[in-house]
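User: I'm putting together a teaching handout on how multi-component assemblies are represented. Below are the sequence lines for each component of a complex, exactly as they appear in our records. Could you produce the 3D structure of the whole assembly as structure tokens, so the students can see both representations side by side? Please keep the chain order the same as the input.
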Amino acid sequence: MPLLEIKDLHAAVGIKEILKGINLSLRAGEVHAIMGPNGSGKSTLAQVLAGRETYTVTRGEVRFNGKELLTLAPEERAAEGLFMAFQYPVEIPGVSTSYFLKAAVNAVRQYRGEPELDAIDFLKLVREKLGLLEMDPNFLSRPVNEGFSGGEKKRNEILQMAVLNPRLGILDETDSGLDIDALKIVAHGVNSLRSPERCILVVTHYQRLLNYIVPDFVHVLREGRIVKSGDKSLALELEARGYGWLDGPAERTEVLSYGF
Amino acid sequence: MIEPTTMISTKAELADRLAAGPSSTPAWLAELRREALDQFRAIGWPNLRQEEWRWTNVAPLTKVAYRIPAPPDLGLPLEEWREQIAPYSLRLRGWRELVFVNGTLIPQLSEWAGPDLRISALSAAVDSQSALIRRHLARGVALAQDGFTALNTAGFQDGAFIHVPAGLQPDRPLHLLFFTPDHPGPVLVQPRNLVVVDAGAKVVLAHSYAGASRQPALTNAVLEMVLGAAAQVELIQLQREAAAAFHVSNTAVQLERQAAFQSLTVNLGGALVRHNLQVRLKQPGGQATLLGLSVQTGRQHVDNHTLLDHASEQCRSSELYKSLLGGRAEGVFKGKILVRSGAQKTDAKQTSRTILLSEDAVMNAQPQLEIYADDVKCTHGSTIGPLDEEQLFYLRCRGISVAAAQRLLTYAFAGDVLNRLRHEGMRQYLETLVRGALKGLSLVEPPVERKPTREEKSTENS
Ligand SMILES: Nc1ncnc2c1ncn2[C@@H]1O[C@H](COP(=O)(O)OP(=O)(O)O)[C@@H](O)[C@H]1O
Ligand SMILES: [Mg+2]
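Assistant: Of course. Below is the structure of the complete assembly, with chains in the same order as your input.
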């Protein structure tokens, strides 16, 4: 049974339809990439999966880990093991990163009926993950994302993912704004989170990240539909040829094997 | 001074009663009170047609027949008074404390020992320190400003006189606690404080107002303060009046050369509250920081009016007032910055921020800049809106419930003001109080989609 199964998902803002029938299945252990030009609906898909109320789901269903995802509140989805790394992480002045992380970890633990982490266990956990992402512990005392560079914000997202240990990680343009060194560190962090129980959905505009986080499957999103699916070589083809060649009537495709 | 347990109702009756009371000594004070009384008769209570009062309707407090409470006659055993004031006392935190009950100093409940500061009841000091008091009393607030300052001058019961001699930096901060116990009927309490901080002295002072009255008591307080050259003061005003109470305060501060003043006005109680805080930067190099934090719910109405009077060159002022409004609460902030001609190189910054936690809460925020100098920098900005939708969603995406996310964001919002306090003990104390007050706010659930109104403006003349 897939860990995440999206069937004919339609979503709109007001009367504007953005997602026009998404079908996607992710099995535990897999890494999928969604690529697509700006405005194709990548972030909308990520946000709808996370529970953003701005978007109305007009049709379709999503099952996550055996549950009806769309009936759950965002915090319930998180506690069920869904994690979405924001394309634009939000600044929260006045709340330190460590306070925030601790509140998040313990909220999720509470939902799962696990005991809260005390200060010492929490610090141990966070220190370890900070090391993984080569982040300075000073980071913890700074207000969440406030005054962070673009790269720091993205690392902070992956740090949260590492600390929260989700079943599904959705990374929305985690590569944008990163220089090559930071990109390698972030990719290393993500790769170390790959596991047979977990699946990862990498959303990106460019192929570059996929050199470091090598996906099992690549899907192309265009105008709210997945118009092509393939293996990692599809990403290289997109890099070489752009998205233009995919123009024309949108086709619904199942996962195809592409070999060049 | 004033006849105990006198019933008063209308403005005229109130004036008559005050006039009929035994006259004060010394003669200059009796004369001052008479003059103030004439002022009160002439101008009376403010009304909505006056520009400075258009957002705050004081009619409810003018219709009450107040009793001027008897000087206590403590009635209860001392232990019971101690118990009543314990929730408001800072003595266990190491503060010196003057406790006033119904506006009268109760030495048995107070502790201000120490050879350094000169502290006494104002009523006692008018004889012993006559010259100093005469020089400063009723000089900071204009009697004609509004009926409240005139009424206070005409009929104040008592208050503190504090004189910090030049260069002195007392190690313990001082707390003035004004407590209004429960009375069978409405009471009028009028505290009057005068603080003289000489050159180079440095002091932390708090004045708090608390009550147990279930009747609509009115506290009408005035505090005047002068800071000598390079003096430094941190002043905390904590309004925790009873739920049915009216509270009006007028605070006037004057700064000489290079003096530095910081205030924080915290509002957690009261039904109808108005503060006028005016700070006059009289000489070059003065610095003023005005902070405010109000947590309101129910139908609480809190109005903060501030005036930063840049009367001299090269002074800096910065102002940050924040409100968290739930229920049907109403908030008002009006901040006037006056830059007089000749006050060149003025640097003034004003910010007011409000979070509306309910659809029915209302905030009126209005900056007012009057600038008569050409080489100045003045900025102001104000935001009013619900909790930030993006921030709430971000927190929820990390597993944090709506209620916990709202708490986190409101604490952070308030913490931004409290973290600016210099006195660490006071900061911790207020943090606990404010957290308690925030827990009592009914928060919106689920969050409503509403765009904040944002308005950031700045005026720069260089
Ligand atoms: N909240 C919104 N309100 C209106 N239009 C939106 C909103 N969110 C996304 N859109 C529109 O939906 C389309 C897809 O946007 P988005 O999902 O952000 O694309 P991508 O992430 O692929 O660049 C764009 O045309 C965008 O303008
Ligand atoms: Mg996007």
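A couple of points students might notice: The pocket of magnesium ion (ligand 2) is lined by residues A 42-43, 87, 173 (CB under 6 Å). The longest helix of chain B spans residues 27-43.
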